[in-house]
Design goal:
The protein has two helices and six strands; from the N terminus they run ββββαββα. The chain is an alpha+beta fold and 116 residues long. The protein has one domain. The N and C termini lie close together (8 Å). GO terms for molecular function: ligase activity.
């Protein structure tokens, strides 16, 4: 990918993650994510199975405690500011998987390495 890349994990499934990303392909998404990427958990480590080489790490330094879980109060603020709510739920065989900021930070580090 010659011009950079940003990906955000929007769902963590038992064996894969779903990401919303830019500069991956140039098609409209049929769902609220661009693709699903498989991962393995081996000896206490996560390994994302993708075709791109990891180029570096991004670490989150939250010394000012600015990261907070996505709760109903935050969703209400988003709705008030934007007039509607984003789709925070991905559907997988009628099971709802809710966005989790803790999973986001764990896998965001790995995705940044893969999609830099």
């Amino acid at each position: 990918m010659p011009h950079g890349h940003v990906a955000v994990i929007i769902d963590v499934l038992p064996n894969s993650i779903r990401v919303a990303e830019e500069n991956w392909d140039f098609f409209y998404w049929s769902r609220n994510y661009s693709r699903e990427i498989p991962y393995d958990f081996i000896n206490g480590n996560y390994y994302i199975r993708d075709n791109y080489t990891i180029l570096g790490w991004i670490l989150l330094d939250d010394k000012y405690n600015q990261t907070q879980p996505l709760d109903q109060s935050t969703i209400n603020t988003i709705i008030q500011l934007n007039g509607s709510s984003p789709d925070f739920i991905c559907r997988n065989n009628a099971i709802h998987h809710y966005f989790s900021t803790s999973y986001f930070f764990i896998f965001h580090l790995l995705l940044c390495l893969l999609f830099h």
